[in-house]
Amino acid sequence: VTMRATRVAVLALLVLLPLGVIVFRGAQPANVEVLTDPDVLASAWNSVSSATGSAALATAFGALLAVVLDRTDLPGRTVLRWIFLLPFLIPPFIGAMSWMALLAPAGTVNKALMALTGSAGPLLDIYGGGGVVFLLAVHSYPLAYLVISAALRRVPGSLEEAARISGAGGLRTFGQVTLPLVRPAVVAAFVLTLVANLSDFGIPALIGLPERYTTLTTLVYRYLASGTVTNPLPAVAAIGVVLLVLGLAAVLLQRRLPGGSELGGSGAAALPLQLGSARWVVTALLWCTAAVVCVLPLLALTEQALLPAPGVPLTWENLTLANIARAVTSGGALTGIANSVLLALGAALACGVLGLGVGALLTRTKHRSNAALDVTAMLPQALPGLVLAVAWLLIAPALGIFNTPWVILGAYVMAFLALVVQSVRAPLESVPLSLDEAARISGAGPLRALGDVALRLSVPAAVSGAVVVALTAVRELTISILLVAPGSQTLGVVIFNLQQAGDYNSASALALLVTIVGVAGLSATAALGARRTARTRFRKGK
User: Fold this and answer.
1) Distance between alpha carbon 498 and the CA centroid of its chain, in Å?
2) CA gap 256, 191 in Å, rounded
3) Taking a C-beta distance cutoff of 8 angstroms, is the pair 513, 328 a contact?
4) 3-state secondary structure of 65
5) Which residues sit opposite 368 in a β-bridge?
6) Spatial CB neighbours of 31, under 8 Å, sequence gap ≥ 6
7) Less crowded by CB within 10 Å, the N or C end of the chain?
């Protein structure tokens, strides 16, 4: 009882209190009037339209990739899959910097096109609403792919085999049997990408603001940072409530839409679709797409990081590591790195301990409060990051942590707790309750039985989830840019400020280091998780 009460109290402080305050403050009649401001209405329209358009593009492309990479006989699928997932491992604002280095008026592609065509001006421009939609889609299609791909792997092969035996061809079987079964996953992928894109700050700030394309996230940042509004908190709270409603509406819409049947993994393995004569054409198209979408922007970012100044020709003589050395040794960068590492480790530790405890309560106990506990722990994952930042901005003065790193840490724990709960839920559910009963028969108390059996077996999953939390938090921007205070700037804020100040080469150098560390860390974590899952299945005889 004490353990449950403690975890419920912590979750109430981390989740329910911030959300309750933002709803209370934002729903005040005087604050609601802010929503009729023309700037707010225009920004809201830009947010909804860009998020919806980019989510539709990301879902369509993610579904196409899931079909081609997971259900056909395409050669080189493993390498292609990893390349296409690269944007998922890179923070969106760093991805925006990469595309700016590639498609900005003075970017690599425009310089090459101007040299080839003799044009006096740039032929392509990444800035504006179109660029925001495109880049949001680029950085969210991997999420759609992962959701739809997981659903495709769970389609019972016996159903497809029965359709084949009945005389249906491969394409007809896929269209009439497989696709209807994965329709709920497609809807879920659209909603997840919509909510994620609705709350993104880095891409609209770097790509939209130069062309006066403002979204709700960038409008809130402008209110807080520019000082154009005397008391920005009422306006910020009202905008936060709008985003909260939009996020919850998207999740509720997903649940109310009609879906397909529940999928099960039993039965024969699905037969791959034969591409036939189109096999090598599809392979070439995918490799070209992967090079353009995933590799070229990173190469452009690398070029900008290794050149001494913008516009300098790319030659061996001009390549230098001075930008990287300056970026990692400057006072601002060192402060940002130290703050990000400490906050990321603190969030990982808190999420690991709390997530393991919440997961144990949800899976190893039966209590009428479990449903509410589950919703409270998972709710922040469905909400825009801006809402979480604004909520903590409102409660920080009352808690005495305003303008301190503690407010960022609280928002991080609230935002990333669900990652650990999801990581430990499956291992905890797979441990038979008979083991707990055996421990109790041997004289162990309830807490000791839980700790010696279920928790011990799920600790590796909790550690993996905590590592993902740390790697995600250390590169985060949306939350920290709104909660940053003097001396508490994070690594993402430092990179963003360098980019905004026009020091593109130093910003690119620091962003390149963050990208390399993030891609390596998340790839290693995913590989270890897959290896642990394979060992578990082998022990179970699957």
Assistant:
1) 23
2) 12
3) yes
4) helix
5) none
6) 25, 234, 235, 237, 238
7) N
Tokens linked to 182 = 């994965």
Read off the amino acid at residue 39. D
State whether residue 72 is helix, strand or coil: strand
In this structure, what are the phi and psi dihedrals at residue 495, rounded to the nearest 5 degrees?
A: -65, -45
pLDDT tens digits in sequence order for the chain, 542 residues long: 566 788 888 888 898 899 888 888 888 887 777 778 888 889 989 999 999 999 999 999 999 998 889 888 888 888 898 899 888 888 898 999 999 888 888 778 888 888 888 777 777 888 999 999 999 999 999 989 988 888 777 776 666 666 666 666 556 666 666 677 777 788 888 988 988 898 888 999 999 998 999 998 888 888 877 666 667 777 788 888 887 887 777 766 655 655 444 455 444 556 677 777 888 898 999 999 999 999 999 898 888 888 887 777 777 888 888 888 887 787 788 888 899 999 999 999 999 989 888 888 888 777 787 888 888 888 888 777 888 888 898 899 888 898 889 999 999 999 999 888 888 887 777 766 655 566 566 665 555 555 555 666 677 888 888 888 998 898 888 889 888 888 888 988 889 888 888 888 888 888 888 888 878 877 777 666 666 555 555 444 44
Write out the H or E segment, with its range, that includes residue 312: none
Closest CA to 334 of 97, 98, 510, 516: 510
pTM: 0.82
Token pair recorded at residue 372: 């509410």
Cα angle: 21, vertex 24, 29; to 5 degrees: 145
- What token pair was written down for 400? 């005495």
Quote the tokens at residue 342: 């400490």
Per-residue tokens: 316: 């061996």
DSSP helix/strand/coil, 428:
helix
Q: Which amino acid is at 371?
A: A
